[in-house]
Amino acid sequence: MILLISDLHLEQERPDISRAFLHFLETRAVEAQALYILGDFFEVWIGDDAISPFQRSIAQALRQLSERGTRIYLMHGNRDFLLGKAFCQEAGCRLLPDPSVIELNGERVLLMHGDSLCTRDTSYMKLRRWLRNPVSLFILRNLPLSTRQKLARKLRNESSAQTRMKASDIVDVTPDEVLRIMAAHGVRTLIHGHTHRPATHQLHVNGQAAQRIVLGDWDKQGWALQVDKKGFNQLPFNL
Ligand code: MN
After folding, report:
1. What separation in Å is there between the alpha carbon of 93 and the centre of ligand 1?
2. How far is the CA of 217 from the centre of ligand 1 (A)?
3. d(CA 164, CA 133)
């Protein structure tokens, strides 16, 4: 059994979410062969060198899970794209590039965070291209901590006016971009998060039946996609 989650937006100010996540690790994830975290795991991440005691406790919980035999894969989201090797080493997880193709139930499946599918948000796409450029990343990682904190606050204020992101605040994916990237990778299943609109969409890629599974964000409830012999099943649970 494999589990996929995304958009927990973990932060110290939401102990209900981190408590539910720790419970999820001890009860469900421990039964899984692998846990995939598809981005926006943390609400904000300004560098592995700025890890807080709260974030360190989450890293330790992940490490315990990996030591008990569950492989953990972590993909960057738009909030935590500065998560780096030091965090992964501490948390016992592996960084997964966005996009990545993996095999689930003998089928090739495309995994993404999902922000790159929202091509209609042109100002964000421009910012994303700049932020994810290797040169910009190098500069960002080497900025003084206080400058990075200021920058993160500025980005957050612009994106959500300091309220928690709701589905209505986030531009949805561009349908044509979904078809294009699924065709380019030759897959019939795409799994992503980011939009906070959990659902399974049936579609056609090159005339073949296909599906796009959108993972839910953890806010009013938690969500996890379970993949086993019974197929792909996503159910909410109480926080
Ligand atoms: Mn996101």
Report:
1. 20
2. 9
3. 27
Neighbours of 94 (CB within 10 A): 11
Contact call for residues 215 and 37 (beta carbons, < 8 A): no
Cα 39 to ligand 1 centre (Å): 7
- Looking up tokens 């720790």, which residue turns up? 22
Residue ranges making up the domain that contains 211: 2-237
**Average pLDDT of 175-192?**
98
Q: How far away, in angstroms, is 165 Cα from ligand 1 center?
A: 9
Instruction: Give the pLDDT confidence score for residue 30 in this predicted structure.
Output: 97
Over the range 189-222, which residues count as b (16 or more CB within 10 Å of their CB) and which as e? bbbbbbbbbbeeeeeebeeeebbbbbbbbbbeeb
Q: What is the pLDDT of residues 68-98, one digit of tens each?
A: 999 999 999 999 999 999 999 999 999 999 9
CATH label of the domain that carries residue 183: 3.60.21.10
Ligand 1 center from residue 7 Cα (angstroms): 6
Q: Provide the pLDDT for residue 222.
A: 97
Helix, coil or strand: residue 80: coil
Which of 158, 199, 213, 205 shows the shortest CA–CA distance to 185? 205
Distance between Cα 236 and ligand 1 center (Å): 19
Domain count across the chain: 1
User: With a threshold of 0.85, does the pTM exceed it?
Assistant: yes
Task: Return the percentage of the chain with pLDDT > 90, whole number.
Answer: 87
Q: 75: closest CA among 196, 192, 222?
A: 192
CA pair distance 192, 171, nearest whole angstrom = 14
Amino acid symbol at 48: D
